[in-house]
């Protein structure tokens, strides 16, 4: 059992409970066990015959609702770059790769494509992937690993897996921490699917191995400058330079010339030989001729040959081809090309390029498109450009040689200002909470993309994710401490939404330390509050409280009233979890006073919402509804769609608490639709959990099981301890009413363990009451009385109306003893 636990990344205790039928066998667990035990899918088939197994069955990519609703996050499973229309040659290599689709039916087909820089490895992989697309209907994914990209660190497989899991529709909060757990989850997500994965520019075996699928049906193509001989089961394809005839044909196609005469073919053959028959260099030369239809092929070839000189085939010829293409650019375009060597990230759009150069977006966009036409840049996604690694290194060399250090520093500063400013605008649209502005807000760039709503903000953040983190790493490496703090602050709302939260916590802890070292208490307070929120989401409530109390002391010393209000609200939420509604209400009343004085309506609405939760907790339902209605009206006046959805969710919960089950169900189904449109996975999970409880009450037990299992899966994968404990209790209560107390007890006991460890008092009391009810039904009255007395005591300490219900049961059990 210990070895199975290690291989599947499920705890020994959890697997033991499945073995003894204390826990159901879910499809996820079954697939992992089938994989490591090589049982041919027997366990998975068994799990699919169970209701709870069916509840977790999902498709990798679908636009249609499943039995439990659509994915919490839309899957993005077709990310191949567009293929080159002028692709030439490599017939034998293509034939081998295309035949691999048949091999994938029996086992994972893994192919490596190696060769020198610029030889066309990525072009071959992309061409083959597009041709193979019909054989892999569940997804075609392209991942840049940056194994040899100048100025870029090789991609960490742990981070790559987070992106891959997100691409399959998994909410970022669902993604487990650690390389092993993520790799196991990735293999699980691909089990039974037909997916094609292209891993571009791999550094070595260690980078690639965790990314590989584990079951038949999938194919992987890996490009690398190295021969990955240590990769077990991989079939190698080594690319050499193009044969002379293919090199001439490629030149003619890229130059948009018809069939060449014998004389032209001879001249072009000499030309392409001087640049090593390397596709990258050939493309640069052909691009020049394509812009001059009046030029003859022979004259152009003769002129280029003269410029290239008597160079040996190889690197010197390639460098000369680069120089010729660069020299032919107008001065402003040359400067843009050099500036691309300063960009810390992998790709760039027109807005970032405009910030980098200090020019207008319109002019820069035209220059980027022209350089794409000249084959100096690739455009893997519409509007996003990147140079080949060799050209990136060439640009870095040019800017270091030709641009003064002061100019380079100003260019990078403008770029970082642009990213930080736009991230802050986007974050304001994504935010779930009232938040202080950063003390280091940068000046607005000359131009930035329009972000009219939350969807646009989320799209921009996700498109720029790698660049934003690369800029943060760049600032850290250069010791730009204030930039590290302010940029991390700008990214905080997105990190809280998209995670992974473990990575967010690392970044925020670093920002806290840097701000403290800089002697900047205002920035440190902001960083501490951002860290506290992430710790709250991770269920690290002790650290969250300690961090927030530190922040509260700082903002009070600074006289920062809004910062104080924010700290009070976070501490109030921790008090709610700790079963101390009186302290929570006191903190929220003080927060309301402060935001009222400041005239901060978003902060007021947020505080009203939390105060309503406290009143509901203590059974003051009418007051809770009044406060929540005020919050809803404020959010609607502010045009805050997320706040409105959350207020409606809380009103739905109130309907459920007051036994208005039909009204609650109708409202929460509407809210679930709102959260889906907003792309908020946490809101969706909370709705699923509430709807599961309502369907339990209405007697639709199968639907309740589906919804609760889905919510539990999200909470468990996300590390949301509060949600997990609540969902475990809800599911256990359902099991008690449907299959009996013996099946329900493990869920309540697991919830009790979680709740006690995290000090979530309400769920601790619910778990105790549930355990007592199960024991009573089994005839274990002595044990039931002991546990129920503890539940009643805890309910009374919290001050919740559930105390009366539990006390009545205690009297009943005592009387019948």
From TrEMBL:
Xref: Gene3D superfamilies: P-loop containing nucleotide triphosphate hydrolases, Tetratricopeptide repeat domain
InterPro entries (alphabetical): NB-ARC (IPR002182), P-loop_NTPase (IPR027417), TPR-like_helical_dom_sf (IPR011990), TPR_rpt (IPR019734)
Species for this entry: Nonomuraea wenchangensis
Pfam family, one: TPR_12
Superkingdom of origin: Bacteria
Location of the region described as Disordered in the Swiss-Prot/TrEMBL record: 48-71
Gene Ontology MF annotations: ADP binding
Protein name: Tetratricopeptide repeat-containing protein
Domain NB-ARC: 107-256
